[in-house]
Structures are given as structure tokens and as C-alpha cells.
Design brief:
The protein is an alpha/beta fold. It has helices at 7-14, 33-45, 56-68, 105-114, 132-137, 146-156, 165-175, 178-186, and strands spanning 2-4, 21-23, 48-51, 74-77, 192-194, 197-199. The protein has two domains: 2-114, Dna Topoisomerase Vi A Subunit, Chain: A, domain 2 (3-Layer(aba) Sandwich), CATH 3.40.1360; 132-199. The protein is 39% helix and 10% strand.
Length: 207
């Protein structure tokens, strides 16, 4: 079962997959105690995939659900940062990014697969134990330039720039085995620190 923000997101997703899609009705989920109970029950019984927009509002809703729903029963799917405006809207969002409803079908399907969803064919992305210690060793955390290196890695994986280090670690373990992860890190640009300032070269394209 998949949780999205609104009815237009739901309509877009139903064109891609044959699955139950529920909505949070935006920020209404914060005060809708009945829907919260329903989502908690469904997560326990069926498991849920959370798919929200990549803007600030989407991450607020996602983080609220992350704290509410039982751990181990929820997967998180992320759409990439794509600039644009949905056709039905006269003006774009504050962040200037397309939401779930504006994504192409293949992008939505890819986001679900990366989150660990499987199709009837049984396709499953490789998983591998990337840890916080790996992040330290590979300078993705604990260094002045770690945020810039994570940004480069998020860009290479076509993931939203707002993702935290913990969220990135979670997604990497859905996307990569250790060999693929190490190859991605090895392809990142080197970032040398000069005094207290970080010198950041242009982000190289990683394929």
C-alpha cells in the first residue's frame, strides 16, 4: 500500500501501479487522528510505502509519518528534484519543483522499485550493509566538506537534495550492494579543505 499527499498524486500513481493508494490530505494528517490510526494499523498488517513531494512540505509530512508509523513496516520512496510546474497550476510551488503528480510514469515506477517494492516478476534491487562507519571513512559525514560530498552523491543517484545523511544511508542500502556503493564514492570529486574553508570542485557526472 502506498501513501501520498493528495488526490492528484493518487491519480498519477494509479496510472502506474495496481495498488491501494491512500492520501494524507496534505497537512490535515497532523490533526486527523482517525486516519493516523488507520495508517498505523495498515502498516502493521500490510506494510506501507511513503511517497511525498520533494519540497519542504513533503519532507515535513514524511518525517511526521516516519515518527508515527512502526519501524520495519514502512519503506520510503523518493522522487528526484525536477524543476517545473504542474499543468493544472497557474504558478509553481515555492521550491519550484515538480511534485509526485508531475512525474513521468517511469520515474514514479523507478522510485517505488528503489524503495524496495517488487512487481509480479519478482524484481528486487540489491541490498548491502552500508553503515555509518562507511560514511565516516568515505568522508560523507564528520568532515567540513561532508555535506558537499553527500550533495554530489545525491545528485549522482538522482535523489532530492533535502535528504538527510540518515535518509541517504537508508536509501543506499536499498539501491546498492557494497561494491556498487564503493564505486559511486570513488567516482565522487575530491574536495580539499584550505584552513576552515572547503574548496568544492564542479560536480562530475557519475554514471
Amino acid at each position: 500500500m502506498i501513501v501520498v499527499e493528495g488526490k492528484y498524486d493518487k491519480n498519477a500513481l494509479r496510472q502506474v501501479v495496481d495498488a491501494t493508494v491512500l492520501t494524507t490530505d496534505g497537512f490535515a494528517i497532523f490533526k486527523d487522528h482517525e486516519k493516523k490510526k488507520l495508517l498505523m494499523r495498515l502498516a502493521e498488517e500490510r506494510g506501507l510505502i511513503v511517497l511525498t513531494d520533494g519540497d519542504g512540505a513533503g519532507f515535513v509530512i514524511r518525517n511526521h509519518l516516519k515518527g508515527l508509523l512502526p519501524k520495519g513496516r514502512v519503506k520510503h520512496a523518493y522522487i528526484p528534484d525536477v524543476r517545473g510546474r504542474e499543468r493544472r497550476k497557474k504558478t509553481g510551488g515555492r521550491a519550484g519543483l515538480l511534485g509526485v503528480e508531475g512525474m513521468r510514469p517511469e520515474v514514479l515506477l523507478g522510485a517505488l522499485r528503489r524503495a524496495g517494492a517488487t512487481t509480479e516478476s519478482g524484481d528486487r534491487p540489491p541490498r548491502g550493509g552500508v553503515t555509518k562507519a562507511d560514511f565516516m571513512e568515505d568522508e560523507l559525514s564528520g568532515r567540513p566538506h561532508s555535506a558537499a560530498r553527500r550533495a554530489a552523491l545525491l545528485n549522482a543517484l538522482d535523489l532530492p537534495a533535502r535528504m538527510t545523511a540518515n535518509a541517504l544511508l537508508e536509501v543506499l542500502n536499498l539501491l546498492c550492494d557494497r561494491e556498487a556503493y564503493k564505486a559511486l564514492v570513488a567516482a565522487l570529486p575530491r574536495m580539499e579543505t584550505a584552513g576552515s574553508e572547503t574548496v568544492e570542485p564542479e560536480i562530475a557526472e557519475v554514471k
